[in-house]
Amino acid sequence: MQEPVKTGAHELSAEATLEPDSLWFDGHFPGMPILPGIAQLAIVSDILKWSAKQQGSPVMIAALTRVRFRQFIRPGDTVSVIITQDAHDPSAFRFRIVSNGQAACSGTARTAPPAA
Asked: How does strand 92-99 pair with strand 60-69?
């Protein structure tokens, strides 16, 4: 995954091409591999954690809501991840993963400081 880029006052984006030999595709599913939903959410989590670390305030994902998986992501696909922070609630982030020009996954993530 390329390093995330700040594309607006409250927006981050990143792009990645998913390698066909990625362990995420191993066994999910033989003959018709697709990127598991947990892997998609891990990508969102990694970007949020990266951003928080850049700002000097590590976070963890406290909740995921309104998550929708709309399209399969296959080996070799290039995905764009767009994450927008809620202007009224700095712990809430809307995210969207786009593959082949269409929304593959969307939802809201809430962050919190890591447990001590």
From this structure: unpaired
Q: DSSP assignment, residue 86? A: -
Residue 112: both structure tokens together: 């919190």
Q: How confident is the model at residue 8 (pLDDT cuts 50, 70, 90)?
A: confident
**pTM > 0.85: yes or no:** yes
Domain extent for 13: 5-112
Domains in the chain, number? 1
pLDDT digits (tens, 9 = 90+) for 50-70: 999 998 999 999 999 999 999
CB 97 within 8 A of CB 81: yes
Sole residue written with tokens 């809307």: 94
- The CATH number of the domain holding residue 84 is 3.10.129.10
